[in-house]
Amino acid sequence: MLTRRLILNPKHPSAFLRTFATATPYRKTPSLADITPNGAAAFDARQKEFRDSVRTAQQAKEQQDSQLVNTSTPASTSASASSFTNTAIAQETNDASIAADYAGKFSLGSLSTHSAEQARESTSQHETSKRKGALSSLIYGTKEGQQMDQDIEKSFSQVLARGKYVHSIVFHQVKPDKVDEYIKLVGDWYPRMASLEENHVHLVGSWRTEVGDCDTFVHIWEYQRYHGYHTSLHSIASHPEFPAFDTHLKKLITHKETSLMQEFSFWPTTPPRKLGGLFELRSYTLHPGNLLEWETHWRKGLKARREVMEGVGAWFVQVGDLNTVHHLWQFADLEERKARRELSWGVEGWGDTVHKTVPLIQKMRSRVLIPMPWSPVA
Q: Which DSSP string do the residues of 100-131 spell out, in sequence order?
């Protein structure tokens, strides 16, 4: 049974909120016109409150883990176990932001695993060792080739470490005169399906494209491995109201596209939050064979970006639109987006990331998104 996702309420640290149920009433179609040009201060305040709550939850979790180690480990080995735990935590903190640490333990990206998880991870490690020979041929002709090869081999295992989580990204192209009807239909159905425990699925978020392919809606779902994806689809399709929903939906859209993705290990998906503002979905189509090099450079570059920008998540497609990477960011407004992207160039390491990743890209695309009222991440 999958664990319920819980996030601390910043105003009431002892209280917990169910993150995938929503009672937000539908009023009108959200749009860029809802974003005020003077909302940056409020956005920053909500961002700080969110990060503080994440930090508090992380510290509480670390303290709880430490107590468990002390009570379950013999005295002769407790010191070494504690040292190992602290080293692991320090390394994890060094690899990702506090929000990412929290996401990897408590919230999105933290589904409980089934009984075969250890066996599958063992198999993954065995497969990784067999691939090492092929990895050594990925980088040629650079003075840092050997070091890069080591980084890529390390990155490969770290990417696979998140393999127990599968995300789907769904694009719906909606008929312009059916947008309001679509929002009403999906705004009722999606939160209900996400709130049913037997469906084994979590809704990361739902957004409408305002700049880009307009009237396209983007939905990101999370499942526990591919068996969870199959289980979820079967459970939802077996719901007595599904045929009516599906028939109605098909009358409102002109096109549907779905890809199955994994999240990068260095950038776990954010827990549910309500910071306000807008989102930018940046999609990159890479030249085949460059995913591991992309991951290696972005692992370093994200540290620089997170100093000035609020990331939501990053995923690479495994089934569907192959060689595609999606990055999702959140901003107070478009002016803040511009300002923060410019600030990135002043952070050490970001220029080097751009220099090394641009040659890996075939094409790239940017969409400005507005969250739907029922979206857990908004």
A: HHHHHHTSTT-PPP-TTHHHHHHHHHHHHHHH
Of the candidates 291, 287, 235, the one whose C-alpha atom is nearest the C-alpha of residue 264 is 291
Per-residue pLDDT of 270-291, as tens digits, reads 889 999 999 999 999 999 999 9
Residue 257 DSSP label: E
Q: Is 82 exposed, middle or buried (0-12, 13-18, 19+ CB in 10 A)?
A: middle
Question: CA 95 to CA 342: how far, in whole Å?
Answer: 24
Phi, psi of 156 (to 5 degrees): -60, -45
Identify the H or E element spanning 187: helix 179-195
Helix (H) / strand (E) containing 223: strand 216-224
Find the radius of gyration of the CA atoms of the chain: 21
Listed residue (171, 170, 242, 163) closest to 212, CA to CA: 171
Token pair of 66, please? Answer: 């430490």
pTM for the model stands at: 0.67
C-alpha atoms less than 13 angstroms from C-alpha of 23 in its C-beta half-sphere: 2
Residue 125's alpha-carbon distances to 142, 158, 159, in angstroms, are: 28, 10, 12
pLDDT of amino acid 28 = 63
Distance CA 253, CA 250 (A): 6
pLDDT band at 143 (very low <50, low <70, confident <90, very high): low
Measure the CA angle with vertex 371, ends 11 and 113; round to 5°.
70
Kindly state the tokens that stand for 127. 């497969």
Q: Is the CB of residue 219 less than 8 Å from the CB of residue 209? A: no
Q: What is the pLDDT of residues 330-375, one digit of tens each?
A: 999 999 999 999 988 888 888 899 999 999 999 999 999 999 999 9
Tell me the C-alpha to C-alpha distance, in Å, between residue 84 and each of 90, 93, 110, 121. 10, 14, 22, 21
| Cβ(46)–Cβ(277) below 8 Å | no
Residue 130 contacts by C-beta under 8 Å, 6 or more apart in sequence?
none
- At residue 108 the predicted structure's pLDDT band, cuts being 50, 70 and 90, is very low
Kindly tell me if the per-residue pLDDT of 233 is higher than 70: yes
- 277: helix, strand or coil: coil
HSE-up of residue 44 (Cα within 13 Å, Cβ side)? 9
Task: Return the amino acid letter for 207.
Answer: W
